[in-house]
Amino acid sequence: MKKSGSSPFIYPSSVRRVLVRTVLTVVLIVLAVPSISAAPPYEIVEMTIELPDVTLIDQDAREVTLRELVDSGDVVMVDFIFGTCTTICPILSAGFSNLQRRLGSGPGGPVLISLSIDPEHDTPEIMTSYLKRYRAQPGWSFLTGDRDDIDVIMHAFDAYVPDKMSHQPVTFIKGNGPDQWIKIDGLVSTKDLLAELEKIQGGGQ
After folding, report:
1. Nearest to 106 by CA among 131, 78, 138
2. FRET pair for 182, CA 20 to 30 Å: which of 13, 42, 49, 101?
3. 117: exposed, middle or buried (C-beta count within 10 Å: 0-12, 13-18, 19+)?
């Protein structure tokens, strides 16, 4: 007597085609993930920036020219923020704070310049309070000034925005040559910021 055995279930051809397509799609996604994650989270742009001759006010209510401040250090970084910002600015400022802890502050340390894009409201008192939140040390200046002067500076750095709420996360590092800078477009970690700085110091820009 023949024993009845269960026959293996065979999917209809249409179902098999769907399964094959699904498996291939999953494989392609898995293969693509490493290349996506390896993509740099920011863009580097080399720039020539002619600094405008403007006088600004720092957090201590002192007058300072932008050119003199930039020329006062070998390592100079610039960003654009405002005192009541709760989105991009805290991330940028945390980066500057971490940088000071890594590279030191005061004479010989990096010159960090945060330029206000809200000069109508960023008074020296507000700027001082802001810097205290990030434990800023000597060598980090928060500057404000007349709206026209701020606009001129933003245009010079190719960072102009008509509305403070539409500003972008950009950081500028002074290069080796006259008026040479690199623009870091995007949010960047302290590790990556130091890596870009090392490239400049090693003659990469």
Report:
1. 138
2. 101
3. buried
